[in-house]
Design goal:
Number of strands: 3
Order of helices and strands: HEHEE
Structural class: alpha+beta
Number of domains: 1
Radius of gyration: 12 Å
Strand order of the largest sheet: 1-3-2
Oligomer: single chain
Shape: globular
CATH architecture: Alpha-Beta Complex
Distance between the termini: 18 Å
Helix content: 25-40%
CATH topology: Eukaryotic RPB6 RNA polymerase subunit
CATH class: Alpha Beta
Number of helices: 2
Largest sheet: 3 strands, mixed
């Protein structure tokens, strides 16, 4: 996510990055997109029952 998007997300939920769920830098999904430590990832999941849901993860070592 871009810095502006991360800032808006954190402000919306009144949190800081360390409050987000974590994803390891060596997780296959993080490796595939060349994520860097400290990045915030937006993950979109589709479900037949819930529709589209967005999840956010903070990349850690």
């Amino acid at each position: 996510m871009k810095t502006e998007e991360v800032d808006a997300l954190l402000a919306k939920f009144k949190i800081v990055t360390r409050d987000l769920p974590k994803i390891k830098l060596n997780d296959p999904a993080a490796v595939k997109i060349n994520a860097n430590e400290g990045d915030v990832l937006e993950i979109t999941r589709n479900s037949k029952t819930a529709g589209e849901s967005k999840y956010y993860r903070f990349v850690v070592k």
